[in-house]
Amino acid sequence: MLREIMTTLLCGAGLMASAQQKDLVAYANTLQGTNSEYALSHGNTYPTTGLPFGMHAWSAQTGNNGDGWKYQYKATTIRGFQQVHQCSPWVGDYAVFSLMPVAGTLKVNEEQRAAAFSHKDETARPDYYKVTFENKTTAEVTPTERGAHLRFSFPAKTPAYVVLDGYNALSGVKIYPAERKITGYVTNGRFIPQNFRNYFVIVFDQPFEAAGTWENVKGQIFADSLTGEGKGMGAFIRFRSGTKVQARVASSYISTEQAELTWQKELAGFKNLEQTRAAANKTWSTLFNRVLVEGGSEEDRATFYSCLFRANLFSHQFFEYDAQGAPHYFSPYDGKVHNGYMYTDNGFWDTFRAQFPLNTILHPTMEGRYMQALLDAQQQCGWFPAWSFPGETGGMLGNHAISLLTDAWVKGIRTFDPKQALDAYFHEAMNKGPWGGANGRAGWKEYYQLGYVSFPESHGSTSQTLEYAYDDFCAYQLAKLTGNQFYQYVFGRSLYNYKNQYDSTTGFMRGRKLDGSWVEDFNPVKWGGPYTEGNAWHWQWSVFHDVQGLIDLMGGEARFIAKLDSVFSTGNKVDVGYYGQMIHEMTEMVNAEMGQYAHGNQPVQHMIYLYNYAGQPWKAQAHARDVMKRLYNAGPDGYPGDEDQGQMSSWYVMSALGFYSVCPGTDEYVIGSPVFPKVTLTLENGKQFVVEARHNSPENVYIHSATLNGRPYSHNWIRHTDITNGGVLVLEMGKEPAKGRGLEAADKPYSISRR
């Protein structure tokens, strides 16, 4: 099935832009990961048509209004084309409205207007989406950062309608027939201020023959009404039969006037969809050519650029430009308009691991703006964002804004006041906020008094202790680098708290009670309870900042390696434990058939790189290539679990380049095994970093020797400045492991115990 999909994707989309220049954007399949549902995720994605980190994107809609699974590959009908922001089906979407072409009799209800389609009549690329329905109507979409250009082509002599759906909350519309325009607003979303509105402007290029409003609660139609306001209020326009009509759309969270200004800036200059698409293609092509891979198979390149696409969608810009071109934004935290930059739609528990480190390489200017935006958001709501959508949800665990800030600082991105960042983190670490588990700290008193979070007072206690210790390391690191002795002392004491969760009798990180005793009925394959979305096998390794300390705790390198090996050799048995039933993460681990290695979720994704710390780097090389080969592809089954705002894609992108960010907050990346014979990274500063893997192939996955800028290089890590200063890393690849290479103490990546 995948080969057929790839053939259609690469050939049908037109792989060659010219005889000399390949259209790299054609490799990216936005249907990757869309064959998902509640019980089993192959990505939980939708076919996003958008620009890198755009404020809005667009997608075909197969599911009901409000359904988190807004597009499912198995569906046979489409009911609309939505403006979208959703980063996870588990939280739904916000600020949504949709447009749908309706041929023949006017049908406004989402079920009734749905049109049948086949994937063979669908094109899904970052810069362009197109589908021809069975009724011969064609819909096309191409994006701008805060809008989109759509075109609907109706069959000859067939009545032609476009229906605007106001989604599932208060909305309003105004129709201006003389101007061929609709304005309005929607208010849907869960984590939004009370005064939140998404204002939109839609301008058509064809005259209206008739127009009216309707509401989607009862499906009432108000013919000839040009204004309406209420729950699910929408509009419909009738055009001449058999027409081809374009709709240019822009949106704003600030005002209708700002939406009009954005429309003028982003869309007024494009008279037809082809012009808008050419601009979108140029944006993606420029980015993809900055990460240029050579060699490898067509399937590998399609997987790589499909993942690179998703790695560059989240976080969304949440700022707009005023008439003078200055950025300003409506804050999702305090509901006021501020000057400057703001970003949202991201869960840092997922993305601190690889997506943000990838940004430090590819987008340091944006990363610098983002770091100041984090501090602004903290001022506006009293807490750092942890899982914003668009306001703070407090989802998951940990206080990973400090990881982002420290990682940026360590890598030379110094656009914020470190004292302000540390003060804000101190408040975060010593309090519990009013929202979810990552808003402040659940169990913070026990964490400091006992050295661990206790169970059952806090579910996920072991996971919390491990991630708090890592976050405290990041605060310690930032304090040390900026000469802040107070915070260096405060967090230097608690960054070793991970040791208090290790039970030497079982050899696992284990839940502890208030009295210091271990939680009974221990089973390392038992999910939940002290572990968040996993079991003891998965959470054994979350000591990013002190792998050497973990090695020592576990009895030395031999035992550490044996335990790593056992993750793969132990069967993929599941004890549903505290969950009481199979959840999708469990099913995905079982389906991967890699023992207890659960790549479909975040906690264990860095684990294979830990072989580099314990004298067997060749195993990291083999496992990295095996995971990329077996668990990723560019098709609808393209991921082994939730894609999660670019984290899973970023893991693939970085691993395919040949290195991974095991410990953000340090300036090192741990080396694995690159997929391609050659990769050229073109950085914002104009310099290039080349990874050349000579004799690379699906069989030759092992590094036999290396040079960095012409000098022999034995380390299992490279520094951030090795990349940003430009240079060439040459790897000689072979079929058998080079077991004598990279074994010296200096070759091992950073651990605070080895400082």
Automatic annotation (TrEMBL):
GO BP annotation list: carbohydrate metabolic process; glycoprotein catabolic process
Keyword Thylakoid annotated: no
Cofactor(s) for this UniProt protein: Ca(2+)
An example Gene Ontology molecular-function term: carbohydrate binding
Pfam family, one: Glyco_hydro_92N
Glycosyl hydrolase family 92 N-terminal domain span: 27-252
Domain of life of the organism encoding this protein: Bacteria
Residues of the Glycosyl hydrolase family domain: 258-735
Keyword annotations: Calcium
InterPro entries reported for this sequence: 6-hairpin_glycosidase_sf, GH-type_carb-bd, GH92_a_mannosidase_put, GH92_N, Glyco_hydro_92, PNGase
Coiled coil segments of this chain: none
GO cellular component labels: cytosol
Keyword Ribosomal protein in annotation: no
PANTHER family reported for this sequence: PEPTIDE N-GLYCANASE PNGASE -RELATED, PUTATIVE-RELATED
Subunit note: Monomer.
Protein name: Alpha-1,2-mannosidase
